[in-house]
């Protein structure tokens, strides 16, 4: 199975990266809806989509307003937005408020609990999505997605620690997509903002014994020359990369 990185930065887009959004084309599953979601139409392989939101911060939901170009405003049976109840309320009452978005789209809203069934993949196998709480101002939700022989964990907007409660949930995942807004040793800023330092994310990946680690939600102010140097960390974890927009990750 494949995960396409539609947007891989946080806070605001830049010339290199859009904000957080990922799609698994063969099942029509989207993780977060940042500005990168404008690219979704190019990767659609299903009639509709299920969009799972980690939280309601704008860099993770603003792309929901772009879906009208792809699905129209009356696509009741083609777009379902899944999230915690407070996140759904924020999207409905604020993002789609009449003063901001005068004609609200007719999408479905589904409260996201501890788990749900995912659409069947090309092998005809349905999957399971498992959620877990993350530490972030206003709250955030991590997700693990499993199909037989394929597993993916998505952890964004949290302060990573090798003692984090979610390590057991993501253990053994084929692919871990984890945010790292800060380089190593920026612990104070990470705690203040509810984001992660690179060294702590590598420690999480090691503790969880994941197959591969892909770093996302990197600082939008970084230039290519300033991107994290992974040389030292590859001695701890051989398979680690920094996501770029439009990367395709196998899992």
Automatic annotation (TrEMBL):
Keywords: Hydrolase. Its EC number is 3.1.-.-. Residues 29-217 form the Metallo-beta-lactamase domain. It comes from Aeoliella mucimassa. This is Ribonuclease BN. SUPFAM superfamilies: Metallo-hydrolase/oxidoreductase (SSF56281). GO terms for molecular function: 3'-tRNA processing endoribonuclease activity. The keyword S-adenosyl-L-methionine does not apply.
């Amino acid at each position: 199975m494949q995960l396409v990185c539609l947007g891989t930065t946080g806070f605001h887009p830049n010339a290199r990266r859009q904000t957080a959004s990922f799609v698994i084309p063969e099942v029509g599953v989207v993780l977060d809806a940042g500005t990168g979601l404008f690219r979704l139409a190019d990767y659609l392989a299903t009639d509709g989509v299920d969009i799972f939101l980690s939280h309601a911060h704008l860099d993770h939901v603003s792309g929901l307003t772009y879906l009208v170009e792809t699905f129209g405003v009356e696509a009741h049976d083609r777009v379902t937005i899944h999230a915690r109840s407070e996140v759904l309320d924020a999207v409905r009452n604020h993002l789609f408020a009449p003063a901001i978005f005068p004609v609200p789209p007719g999408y479905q809203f589904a409260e996201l609990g501890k788990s749900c069934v995912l659409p069947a993949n090309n092998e005809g196998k349905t999957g399971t999505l498992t959620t877990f709480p993350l530490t972030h101002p206003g709250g955030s939700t991590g997700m693990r997605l499993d199909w037989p022989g394929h597993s993916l964990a998505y952890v964004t907007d949290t302060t990573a620690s090798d003692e984090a409660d979610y390590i057991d949930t993501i253990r053994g995942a084929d692919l871990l997509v984890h945010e790292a807004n800060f380089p190593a040793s920026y612990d104070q800023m990470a705690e203040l903002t509810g984001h992660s330092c690179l060294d702590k994310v590598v420690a999480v990946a090691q503790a969880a014994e994941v197959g591969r680690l892909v770093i996302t939600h990197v600082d939008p102010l970084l230039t290519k020359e300033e991107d994290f140097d992974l040389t030292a960390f590859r001695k701890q974890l051989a398979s680690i990369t920094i996501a770029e927009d439009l990367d395709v990750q196998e899992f």
